[in-house]
Structures are given as structure tokens and as C-alpha cells.
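Box 3.1 A note on notation
Throughout this textbook, protein chains are presented in two layers. The first layer is the amino acid sequence; the second is a C-alpha cell string describing backbone geometry. Keep the layers aligned when reading.
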Amino acid sequence: QVQLVESGGGLVQAGGSLRLSCAASGRSFINYALAWFRQAPGKEREFVAAIRWSSGNTYYADSIEGRFTISRDKAKNTVYLQMNSLKPEDTAVYYCAAAGRAIQSMIRAMTIYDSWGQGTQVTVSS
């Protein structure tokens, strides 16, 4: 069983930066994809970014517009989301997720992710 624990959320002013971390444990992630999703109040959970554990290939939502970077540290079993130029509309609970079988065409789909963290709140003030 995969355990995911997020950290790094908080309150930041518009234009600022935050780095989220997701510590993963429970098994080898050699064939996994790990991703970040977010959910704003009253809205559906949406894809933010994903990374293939083995290759390091990355995928992003169009709405991120180059402001966020996902990365992973294999030695620490940790995935990061570096968020720059934050906007008030980035305010949401950010979730880390893991998928054991991630076909490229589905890597942005929430349904393929079968392990989730508890989420970390990010609030961007204007």
C-alpha cells in the first residue's frame, strides 16, 4: 500500500512562491506516475502536474502556464511542486496522488490515481 504525505502549503501573497513536498512510501515506485491535483472551494478537483518516476517525464495542465515545476528525488522518495508567480486563483487544497499504471493518454485523468494524500492548503492573497 502506498502512503503519501504532503507538506509545504501556507499563505502567500500574489506573485510569491511556495514549494510543496509529497513523501511517498510503501513500495517501489519504479513503474509509477505521481501527480499533483488541486481542489478549490466549490469546484471539482483538477489536474496540475504529473511525473513518471523512472523517466522523469513531466506533464502539466495548460492553466499552469509554465509557472509550476514538478520534480522528484528518488533518494528521498519525494515529489515536489515548485510554484512561482502565484495568483489568487491558485488558492486550493493541493493533493498528491500515485498511479501504478499510467498510460500517457490518461496521465491527466484523476481516475487512474489510486492512492491519495490528505492534502495541503495553499492560500494566495491579492
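Residues 49 and 60 are 4 Å apart (CA to CA). The first strand starts at residue 3 and ends at 7.
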